[in-house]
Fold this protein.
Amino acid sequence: MRKNLALIGALALLWLPLSAHADTNEAYRLGDGIEPRFQQITLTLDPGQADYSGSTSIELTVSGNVDRIEFYQSGLELNSVRLKSTGSIRDLSTESAAYAITGASDGQVIKAGEYVLEIDFSGKLSTNALGMYQTHHDGNNYIFTQFEAMQARRAFPLFDEPAFKIPYQLTINAPAGLVVVSNTPVEDTQVSGDHQTVRFARTRPMPSYLIAYAVGPMDATPIEGLSVPGTLYSPKGQGGKAGFAIRHTPPVLRALEDYFGRPYPYRKLDFIAVPDYAFGAMENVGLVTFRAELLLRGDESRGSDGATTISVIAHELAHMWYGNLVTMAWWNDLWLNEAFATWMGRHVMDSLYPQYQTNLSLPQDRAFTADGRTTTKAIRHDVRDEEEILDGIGLNYAKGHSILNMIEGFIGSEAMQIGIRDYMARFAWKNASDDDLWSALATASGQDIKAVAGKYLSQPGYAIVSFTEQGMVSQKRFRNYGQEAPELDWNIPLNVKYKMDDKVQQLSYLLSAKQGSIPAIAEAEWVFPDSGGKGYYRWQIAPEQVLALLEDIDELSGPEKIAMLSNSRALLDAGEASVADHFRVLEAVSEDDNPIVFLSVLEEVKLIGETIIDQQTLPMFSNYVEKMMTPWFKRIGLETGADDSEAVIRLRPRLMRTLGQFSNNPELISDAAVMALHYLKHEGDIDSNLAVEALRVTAIHGDDSVAREYLDSYSGSDDANYKTTLLRATYFTHPVSIKRALDFALSDSVSAGDSLQPMINLFYINQEHVQLYSWLEENFDAVFEKTPDNMRPFLPQVTGGYCSADNLKQTLAFYQDRDEMFKVALAKAAEDSRNCLSLKNRQQKALQDFFAAYRH
Ligand SMILES: [Zn+2]
């Protein structure tokens, strides 16, 4: 009972601001009429102390008479608030309102004019990787910041809205000898005794969520070859591992400068490898923060690890223009900020690093499932607080990226670039909304872009487009089988590949009504409705057309084959195709010689095995996996070769994993165990992409000594890459190991930013969740406390959403009566479970029939 009481206490604290959104009349933004122009912040920080103090002065323009000055702050002690103007100083008293807004007044009118608001304050450093937070690494203490979205207000009082783009000037007092960095170059350092005062240059106008600083013992590695000075900071002793990251940063920056036709907009470009980080990376002006392992790969990194590092760098640097130089006016456009950076990052990868074949990873595939739920919201919805900003954010990135991709396919790359450059020129150092981008692209292309983009943003979901006889096309909303959702339609730029008179041809058609007609394809032998594989729609063609298309499948490109496989799966989910139909497409695509195309087949087979295969069918399914995967396995083996392409390097680990997880191949399982052991002991040069899957296979089949070994090795290391690899591999199935790993995640050995990883893995890899839920029942308050606050509402999606009736029951029972904050994520998890269970139940017989042929 006491545990529950403690939990209610924690929830009440957190809910003061959040529960306010039950009342839609309450102000969630600062009132009009007061504009900040410049803010100075002085902080006295010691990474070894929990408390800190500071003062700030904010120059303001008040444009009409007001009775109080409002600003944001959360959890700070305000020691004095003074309002200065020429010849007067007024002491103000403060009152807190909802949404972290504080009002300051002395009961008298504040007349229009220029003022300086001065506030002295003190606070406590956060410890869960958000706001201004304290962390410990390898015996040292650090302070880092993560202020997006609404976290700067926990560090100091300010006008924390993205439309207030103003210059800031920071001064940090800290123990002498520590590195102190921020968004701009250091202007002056005064050391007196064991104390230093570091004054940073004034920033260019920027939104507050991009402020960043760090204090601690750090190595500094220069990044040579940028258009501005740059340094990569890492935890003390780690600087020697930055080779790969610093080598690839200059060409990425250059490619972006070329694309935008404008130089990098700030005075310096520093990176920090942060040892405790809740996200991937953050595009703070001039000081980008990253999860440590992304920057500390050593001199060489191949496969997914290397590709991820470069794409994250490209994504964050793209934000320097899109997001930082031109900023969203309010958080409801965060999706575009992120979609654009993701799209632009991908552009850099495709042009500069074709060896990674990132064009074969289709962004819409990461959006369709979530966007097909009835509980999903439109991308563009009102947001008032951080929980509403983060609701569906992953989907919004991927869907937004897909929409931009589709628009580029519609207007062409050249018009896209011209439009983006014009938009940059117009809104540099200012704020803009999505309409501003659509009109720039419309001007550049002569097309009505808003008409296409608008419905995708204001409505959830997407269409399924049917191609019937005589070139007729029609659209309806895509729905999972048995789900009800209001009918909607979209303006869809269709790109169609088709074969007629023995010639493969292509056309574009804007479907802007429920139905349309494309006479050119009326007599086609086959049509492929998603030429280029960039469409944000599903499609359906007649069964004989599918067969004709499969006969000619090599007329499709890699992305098109992958899009076809993904579409085939959607038809299965919608109840529009059978298991046999789906496997016919899957097997045709599996014939492709490109390892990455095969990888998409492998992932689909693995997903089927993890979700809808019942215990009875599993042995036959295992034989199927063996038969399908073995030819590739024989071809590329387990050892990394010097001549391997990046594609082979990406396929190999997943091949080993899928065979190790599903097939009965004792030799492979023991090879994986040997490889895992070598990696654990730092013997040989084992690629971490391969190591993570070898460790996972070994964890799945191993006893508790395996878990002990992984967790001890984790605690004993200060290498970010090694630790991340081990934590990602916590796929333990032994009951003692499950408890061991869950307890370990709550211990001081695992940082707050990583603390959910073992739980995510254990729910995923174990079919049976009884032990996991009973552990969670006992430890929920500790889990909740350690989880970064803005991730807490999403806990039901960590532990639920599985294709299991038991899991669904447990998830509902666990969260239903807990707190309102879990409601949205709980509904999503439950819908995912129900959709998958419905598929599993209705296809059970068909799956048994299909796999019956593989009963040795
Ligand atoms: Zn981003």
